[in-house]
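Sequence, structure tokens quoted for completeness.
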Amino acid sequence: MIELLAPLGIASNHGGREGMRLLDWQNYHGISRTTAYALLRAIGIKPANTRIAGINKPVSFLTKDQLIAMDMIVEQYKLGRSVNELCVGAQSKNVKVSQKLRVDILARDSYTCQMCGIGAKNGAVLEIDHIHPVSKGGTNNPANLQVLCRECNGGKSNRSVLGQV
């Protein structure tokens, strides 16, 4: 964040605004220009082009608030999250679970809701659920799938909830 960068002589006041050049921010975090711009797009930040004394062309400039947002997002990126996962308002990738995989998961979970324990024999409508939602990076890996009844699955929404029997 800017407080950390100021002692390094990177943060400064350009044209009445506190912040830093995008290039300096990239170098500080050790990321490429392509990655920096992808992260900017992912969270909807457009750096201002600012003229700085001694530099002939406008440079991309991040304000203090933009730096704070970018520092948070780059930490997530460095922890292994992809740029697509970090996108603001990212839509879930409508990933369908194949019919064969549905049958395999139903059989594995004994045709029983993994939250409340009701079974198909009791007339429950069973659904295949992503434990870690697709909208938050979950996959169709069988370890990420569970059987839930319609009532339990409807109440879960896109939160990660492990089944309890």
Q: What stands out?
A: The first helix runs from residue 2 to 5.
